[in-house]
């Protein structure tokens, strides 16, 4: 087995894989394809419901984390939204330019940028939360409440399994 391949991926295809025709693995059975489609659907619903606020899903996630933590450095925020620091920093700069977030040097570590919601940021987050929650609900509305909970739990388990293997922080 090739050490560079993920666990469970053989270097050589099995006989069934080697002889399979091009249409024997429909897109609708591929987890990666399905994950991309559900993401597209959710982003579209979020854009429709939250358009008036001019906030992206990533920016909304950052506002939500800051609402919960009150203050956090950019590295903590990047981990909380499962993105790299560069992307997170860019999003925070755009939020700061709109007056929704303040960024200041930490007194404990001058290299760290501490972020907080401004009063405008708190107000905007509160105003858009019902629309954002509706977008999330509409994303999975085809499922029963029990199925929605089950789907969320399964997604957490998939993410957790990959993050444990890679030594990354787990999304809580």
UniProtKB/TrEMBL annotation:
Domain of life, per UniProt, equals: Bacteria
Which terms are listed as keywords in the entry? DNA-binding, Transcription, Transcription regulation
PROSITE patterns listed in its UniProt record:
HTH_MARR_2
Pfam families, per the entry = MarR
The family database entries (InterPro entries) matched by this protein are listed as:
HTH_MarR-typ (IPR000835), WH-like_DNA-bd_sf (IPR036388), WH_DNA-bd_sf (IPR036390)
Molecular-function GO term, any one: DNA binding
Q: Kindly give the SUPFAM superfamilies that the UniProt entry links to this protein.
A: Winged helix' DNA-binding domain
Region described as Disordered: spans on this chain: 1-21
Q: Where is the HTH marR-type domain?
A: 31-160
**Protein name, entry field:** MarR family transcriptional regulator
Q: What is the lineage of its organism?
A: Bacteria, Pseudomonadati, Pseudomonadota, Alphaproteobacteria, Hyphomicrobiales
